[in-house]
């Protein structure tokens, strides 16, 4: 397996960034453009350091005051828009640690690993990372736990599908030679511990394939932009989806495309295709042959005019290059509509009468 672009081992953050958006990976790890500091990063790092102290020393040798002192010492002031925002986030962090100390002290058991650094090889690819907590269960199997301090809510389905925990599971099993039976997210804000069964052998095999595919694409220089829930990232000025966002908003009624008249469909014709496509999606015909034909025409238009988005009144279709968990790539379209408040919302396909 050839070396990765920046010559360093892959990590979950790098892998997640590439599968989320290959262009963002290139900007961050190949071009090495610095990311913008964010308050949630500052808060998360400081909270993790205080929790590491608790698990390393245990509740009998750690006081609440000790944890709050670590919070103060490790606090990063970067990324907060205002001083009041920083004070508000620090109040949240103190409440989180206070709640954690009281909850964890009652049910404490010495962990097997705290902030466990690992270096493993997955299908010939060096992989590195750090795991918040590893615990041994009464039956001798292991549990991998990751602390989350953000606002996102978690349920068992999300935990089971969490790729980060899947990678950590493989690392722990390789290090200790024992089976991981449970993977857990501890959501600090809600004081909720959400546990799911560990990755099966089949799931781990699929994850290995996805990692190999991602590295192969990186080595091939495949850094296309991709829309995701993380958009916009720290590099909107480098992204074809967001670089001209204000222009897109101002010219949404099709003016952006008027200069793109070519040998194929005119702008008015492609607008009609988009409207027909919307009717198919909303009408429960997402998988019909006629819908596939409309998608083929939109793809041809995007390819001919080198665009990623087509506007048709209040409708927008976005060309997206995605990656299956198996590692296979595919092209699809995301349909969205501008609501009365001016925000663009995705249009969901009807499920009751798929053709």
Can you characterise this structure?
This protein has 355 residues and is of the alpha+beta class. It has two domains: 1-228, Alpha-Beta Complex (Lambda Exonuclease, Chain A), CATH 3.90.320; 244-346, no CATH class. The protein is built from eleven helices and ten strands. The protein has helices at 12-20, 22-30, 39-57, 64-74, 83-106, 156-160, 163-176, 201-219, 245-250, 267-282, 289-305; strands spanning 10-11, 113-122, 125-136, 142-148, 180-187, 192-197, 309-312, 315-323, 329-338, 344-346. It is globular.
How would you sum up this structure in a few lines?
With 355 residues, the protein is of the alpha+beta class. The chain contains eleven helices and ten strands. The strands form two sheets. Strands 1, 2, 3, 4, 5 and 6 form a six-stranded mixed beta sheet that branches. A four-stranded antiparallel beta sheet has the order 7-8-9-10.
